[in-house]
C-alpha cells in the first residue's frame, strides 16, 4: 500500500516559506510523501499556508478552495487544511465559507497539523485550533528543506512595531527571540549536512536581542556566524532602519562570510507619510544608513520595499520618495500599490488616494527604478565574481546552454556552461560581460570551477530522489537564500 501524499501551497513572505518547510517536514515525519510536481490538488492532503497581507488574499484563498471542492467529492479521504496569517485572522469564518475544509490552524501552532488532520478524520468534522501565543519555536520542528545547500534559520518570530499599514504583529504576536546558542547549533548542524549558505530570518531581524536588552546581539550573532567552518555565505532579512546600528554595519564589513547585500525597507521617502505610517525614522536617517553601508562596503547591493499611494500621500510626498530612490540607487526595489488591509489603522484613514493616481505614481516609480537597476548592473561589467551555482533560476538555460548562479551580492548571473561537471551548490568564477536590468551575463569561458560539500549534498539528495519509487517527488532546490518575492500589488509582509 502506497503512502498518502501531500501538497503544500505557500503564499506571502519568507517566514511563510520557512513555515512551509516545517509543515512539509511534519507531514513526512507522520508518514506522508510529497505529491508529484504539478499535482495541482491531486493529493491526499492539501495545505494552504496563507498570507493576510497580499491584496485580495481571502478572495484568492476561497477561489482555490472552491476549485478543490469537486476534487474532494471524487476522492474519498482527501483532506484540506488552511494555516498561516489569514487562518489566524479569519478563524471560524473559513469553515463557514468553505465547509469542506478539514483543518484550520494558526501561525502559533503549526506543529499541531498532523494531530489535527488525524482528529478530523476520526471525528469526521472540521478542526479549528488557533493558539494565541507561540507553542513551539518553528525551528524545533521537523523540516523538509527545499534546498540541499541553502537554508533559512529563524532567529525570532513576531514583531513589536505598530506600522499602520501592517496586520502582521496582530497575527504573529510580539517579538520572541531564540537563544543564540540554539541558533548557532542549528547552523552548525545544517553545515554538517552540506549547507553552505544560510539566511537569518525574522519579521524584524536586526531587533534581535530586544528580549534581553542587548542592542548589539544581532551584530554579535553575525560575527559568531563568521567563525563557523564550512559556512560560506550568510544573509539576513528583513531589517528595520530604526534598529540598524553602526555595529551591524561593522560586523557585515568585517565578517568575510556575511555577504555584501542588504534589504532595507524604505516604504516612503516622505517624512509626513513615514510619521503617518508610524515608521520611527525619517528620510535623513534612512539615507544616512545607506551612506554608511556604502562607505564600509562599496560593492554592497541594497534593495528595498516601497509603498505608493498611502493615505494622504501628496504629489510632493511622492516626489520625496523618488528623491530617495535617486539618492540611494537601489539594486532593485519591491514596489507596492497601497491597498486597504482590514484591521489596520490605515484602512480607516481619510484621504485615500484614487486608484488612477496610485497607478500613475507606481508606473513612474517602477520606470525610475528600472533605469537605476540597469545603470547599477552595468557597473558590474568587467568584474570577476564568484557565483554559487543555482538550479531553476534561469528559465532559458536549456536553450542557451547556460547555467545560472548568485553573486555574493545576490545578483543573478547567467554563465556559459563549462566542459567540466558543475552542480548546484558548487562555486564558479566568471567575468561579467553584459548587464540587463534584472540579470547579468558571463558569456566567456568559466575561469574556475570549485566543487563543494554543498554540491555533494545536492548530488546526494537527487541521487536518493531518483532511487525512490515513481511518483514521489522530493523537489529540486534553488540557490541560496530562497529567491526574493516578485514585485506585487499591495504592501509586502509589511512590518519591515
From TrEMBL:
Which amino acid positions bind [4Fe-4S] cluster 2, per UniProt?
Answer: 159, 163, 166
Question: What is the uppermost EC class here?
Answer: transferase
Q: Which domain of life is it from?
A: Bacteria
Domain Radical SAM core, by residue range, is 145-376
Q: Where in the cell is it found?
A: Cytoplasm
The main location is cytoplasm
What is this protein called in UniProt? Answer: tRNA-2-methylthio-N(6)-dimethylallyladenosine synthase
Source organism per entry reads Streptomyces huasconensis
Amino acid at each position: 500500500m502506497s503512502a498518502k501524499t501531500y501538497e503544500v501551497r505557500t503564499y506571502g513572505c519568507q517566514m511563510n516559506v520557512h513555515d512551509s518547510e516545517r509543515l512539509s517536514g511534519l507531514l513526512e515525519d507522520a508518514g506522508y510523501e510529497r505529491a508529484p510536481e504539478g499535482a495541482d490538488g491531486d493529493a491526499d492532503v492539501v495545505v494552504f499556508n496563507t498570507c493576510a497581507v497580499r491584496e485580495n488574499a481571502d478572495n484568492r484563498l476561497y477561489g482555490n478552495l472552491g476549485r478543490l471542492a469537486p476534487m474532494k467529492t471524487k476522492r474519498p479521504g482527501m483532506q484540506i487544511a488552511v494555516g498561516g496569517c489569514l487562518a489566524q485572522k479569519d478563524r471560524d469564518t473559513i469553515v463557514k465559507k468553505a465547509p469542506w475544509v478539514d483543518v484550520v490552524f494558526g501561525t502559533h501552532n503549526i506543529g499541531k497539523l498532523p494531530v489535527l488532520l488525524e482528529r478530523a478524520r476520526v471525528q469526521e468534522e472540521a478542526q479549528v485550533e488557533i493558539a494565541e501565543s507561540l507553542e513551539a519555536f518553528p525551528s524545533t520542528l521537523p523540516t523538509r528543506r527545499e534546498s540541499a545547500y541553502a537554508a533559512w534559520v529563524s532567529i525570532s518570530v513576531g514583531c513589536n512595531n505598530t506600522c499602520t499599514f501592517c496586520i502582521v504583529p496582530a497575527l504573529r504576536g510580539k517579538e520572541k527571540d531564540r537563544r543564540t546558542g540554539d541558533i548557532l547549533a542549528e547552523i552548525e548542524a545544517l553545515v554538517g549536512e552540506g549547507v553552505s549558505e544560510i539566511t537569518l530570518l525574522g519579521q524584524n531581524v536586526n531587533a534581535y536581542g530586544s528580549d534581553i536588552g542587548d542592542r548589539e546581539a544581532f551584530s554579535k550573532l553575525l560575527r559568531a556566524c563568521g567563525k563557523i567552518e564550512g559556512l560560506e555565505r550568510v544573509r539576513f532579512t528583513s531589517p528595520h532602519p530604526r534598529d540598524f546600528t553602526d555595529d551591524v554595519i561593522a560586523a557585515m564589513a568585517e565578517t568575510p562570510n556575511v555577504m555584501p547585500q542588504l534589504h532595507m525597507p524604505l516604504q516612503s521617502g516622505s517624512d509626513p507619510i513615514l510619521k503617518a505610517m508610524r515608521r520611527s525614522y525619517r528620510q535623513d536617517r534612512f539615507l544616512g544608513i545607506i551612506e554608511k553601508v556604502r562607505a564600509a562596503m562599496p560593492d554592497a547591493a541594497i534593495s528595498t520595499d516601497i509603498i505608493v499611494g498611502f493615505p494622504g500621500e501628496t504629489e510632493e510626498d511622492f516626489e520625496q520618495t523618488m528623491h530617495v530612490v535617486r539618492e540611494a540607487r537601489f539594486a532593485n526595489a519591491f514596489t507596492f500599490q497601497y491597498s486597504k488591509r482590514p484591521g489596520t489603522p490605515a484602512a480607516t484613514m481619510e484621504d485615500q488616494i484614487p486608484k488612477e493616481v496610485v497607478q500613475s505614481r507606481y508606473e513612474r516609480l517602477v520606470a525610475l527604478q528600472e533605469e537605476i537597476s540597469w545603470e547599477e548592473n552595468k557597473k558590474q561589467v568587467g568584474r570577476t565574481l564568484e557565483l554559487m551555482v543555482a538550479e531553476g533560476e534561469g528559465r532559458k538555460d536549456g536553450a542557451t546552454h547556460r547555467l545560472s548562479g548568485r553573486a555574493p551580492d545576490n545578483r543573478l548571473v547567467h554563465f556559459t556552461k563549462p566542459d567540466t561537471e558543475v552542480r548546484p551548490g558548487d562555486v564558479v568564477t566568471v567575468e561579467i560581460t553584459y548587464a540587463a536590468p534584472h540579470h547579468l551575463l558571463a558569456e566567456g569561458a568559466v575561469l574556475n570551477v570549485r566543487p563543494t560539500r554543498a554540491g555533494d549534498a545536492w548530488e546526494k539528495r537527487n541521487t536518493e530522489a531518483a532511487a525512490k519509487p515513481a511518483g514521489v517527488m522530493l523537489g529540486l532546490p534553488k540557490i541560496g537564500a530562497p529567491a526574493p518575492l516578485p514585485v506585487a500589488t499591495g504592501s509586502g509582509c509589511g512590518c519591515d
